[in-house]
Amino acid sequence: MATQKMLKFVSTPREMPEKRSAAERSEDFHEIYREFARAKAAEQASRCSQCGVPYCQSHCPLHNNIPDWLRLTAEGRLYEAWQVSQATSTLPEICGRICPQDRLCEGNCVIEQSGHGTVTIGAIEKYINDVAWEEGWITAVQPGQERAESIGIIGAGPGGLSAAHMLRARGFQVTVYDRYDRAGGLMTYGIPGFKLEKDVVLRRNQWLADSGVEFVLNCAVGEDISFDAIRGKHDAVLIATGVYKTRDLDIDNADAGGVVRAIDYLTASNKVDFGDEVPDFADGELDAKGKRVVVIGGGDTAMDCVRTAIRQGALSVKCLYRRDRANMPGSQREVQNAEEEGVEFVWMSAPGKFIGHVTGDFAASQEADVDGPVRTVSQIASVSIQKMRLGAPDVTGRQAPELIEGADYDEPADLVIKALGFEPEDLPRLWGVEGLEVTRWGTIKANFQTHQTSLPGVFAVGDIVRGASLVVWAIRDGREAAESIAGYLTGEARIAAE
Ligand code: FAD
Ligand code: SF4
Ligand code: SF4
C-alpha cells in the first residue's frame, strides 16, 4: 500500500538540509543550505501523515498538492513528483527556497502542531525541482497553437513572469517590459544571493525567452515609452510593477550622508554580485566594509540588509526594532540565521535622531563663499536611540510601542540603512493615465478574482495591487490574471469592465 512508506514522523526526526557554518557562509553570497541527498529527501518526505484534510495545502497560496508530491518523493518517483509540483506553481524551485514556510505550509502542518516538527516541505519542493532542472525535464514551452493576440506586461517580477509563462503556454504573443537590465524584479535585485542564488532566477528568465516571451529591458514605462503607447501596441496589458517608494523617517538629520535606503543598498550589492560596475559601491557609499552599521526595521528586508552587511565585512551590525522579538514581522528563521552570523538585535528601540559630524565640505564652503550661505554638510556619526516598552494592545490586538522617557543613548554609526517598508508610487500621475483607479493606499484597484482594473483590457497583479507582499502571492496573481486575460481576449469568459 502506498502509504506504508509514509507516517514516519514518530520514528524519524525532522531534518533540514545541512546548513553551512556561520563562519563559512559569512564570507560569500552563496545559499546557506546544501541540497538534500536523494535518500534524505525520501526519508524526510516519508514523515508526512498524508492528512485527509491537508492544512499545509490550504495554507499554501498556490494550493500546491503537497501530500501527493511528498508521497511520490518518498517512493522515489521523482519525475511524477515534479509533474505534480509544477502543475500548480510557476516558480516552485524559487518558492521552495524563499517562501516564509514557517508562516505558510510548514507552520500549519499537523505534525508541527502535534509537536513532532513539521515536514520540511520547502526543502523537498526545492529538491524535486532542482532535480528536474538537472535532469533536463524542464524544456521550453511549446504552445499547441500560436495565436495572434498580444499582451504587454509591465514588470518582470514574479507576478509578470508567471502571467507571461501561462499566456505563452496558451499560444499568445507576450512582451515583457522592465526598467532594469535583467528580468526577475526583486528576485534579481532585492533578495540577496544567500537566500536565492541568481543563477536560479536567470535560468527561469532564459527559459521564458526560449519559450518565445519577448523581453524589452532597460525600458521604463512613463519615461522611455508611454503607457498609452503600450496599450496601443497590445490587445491587453498587465501592470506588475511592484512597490518601490521607501517609507521614511521624520527625524533630525534624516538626510545625513551615510543614511541610505535598503532598496538602494541591496540593489547595489546584488549588482556587485553579478560583477557589474556600481559607482556608489565603488566609492564606499553603499559598501559596509569596515563600518559600524545600524539597520532600522524588523521585517525581511531588514534581515537581508544586516546579513548583507556581515558579508561585506562590516565592523559591527546592529538591528534596531521598536517591538520585541515575538512581535517582529520578519521570519524567526531569518533572525536565527542573522544571529548566528554575528548580527546584534537591539529590541524595543527606535531612532530618535541622527547625529552628524560636519565634513570637509563645510570648511570648503566657508572658504570659497565667505559671505554666502553656509553649507551644512553632515555625515552620520551616531544614532540617538530611544528605548520603548510595549503598551496596551490596540484594536488589532497588537501591543503598541511606547517611549520610555530619559532612557536615550547614542550608538556610533558609519552607515545607517532604512528598512521601514515600501509604498506604491503614484502610477496614474507618473504615467499620465486617466481613469486608472487606485485605493486610498495608492495601490491599483483591481478585481480580486479577475485582476481587471478600472480600464478595459488592463489588468494588475502582485505588490502594486496588494502592497508589499510575497513572491508566492505574486505568482498566484499572475497565474489567475493569465486566465482572465485569455478569457478576455478569446471571449471564453466575460469579464466586467467595472
Ligand atoms: P517586483 O518583484 O517588485 O517586480 C516589479 C518589476 O517591475 C521590477 O522588475 C521593476 O523594475 C519593474 N518596474 C517597476 N516600475 C516600472 C516601470 N515604470 N517600467 C518598467 N518596469 C517597471 N518575498 C518572499 O516571498 N520571500 C522573501 O524572502 C522575500 N524577501 C524580500 C526581500 C526584500 C529585500 C524585498 C524588498 C522583498 C522581499 N520579498 C520576499 C517580497 C517579494 O520580493 C515581492 O513581494 C515580490 O517580488 C513582488 O512581485 P511583483 O512581481 O509584484 O513585483
Ligand atoms: Fe510552501 Fe511556498 Fe511551496 Fe506553497 S509555494 S508549498 S507555501 S514553500
Ligand atoms: Fe503531510 Fe503535514 Fe501536509 Fe499533513 S499537514 S499532509 S502531515 S505535510
From TrEMBL:
InterPro entries: DPD_II, FAD/NAD-bd_sf, FAD/NAD-binding_dom, GltD-like, Helical_ferredxn. One of its GO terms (molecular function) is metal ion binding. Residues 15-24 have a biased composition (Basic and acidic residues). The keyword Iron-sulfur applies. Residues 152-478 form the FAD/NAD(P)-binding domain. Residues 1-24 are annotated as: Disordered. Residues 26-136 form the Dihydroprymidine dehydrogenase domain. Gene3D superfamilies: Alpha-helical ferredoxin, FAD/NAD(P)-binding domain. Keywords: 4Fe-4S, Iron, Iron-sulfur, Metal-binding, Oxidoreductase. It holds the Pfam family Pyr_redox_2. PANTHER family: GLUTAMATE SYNTHASE [NADPH] SMALL CHAIN (PTHR42783), GLUTAMATE SYNTHASE [NADPH] SMALL CHAIN-RELATED (PTHR42783:SF3). This is NAD(P)-binding protein. It comes from Paracoccus lichenicola.
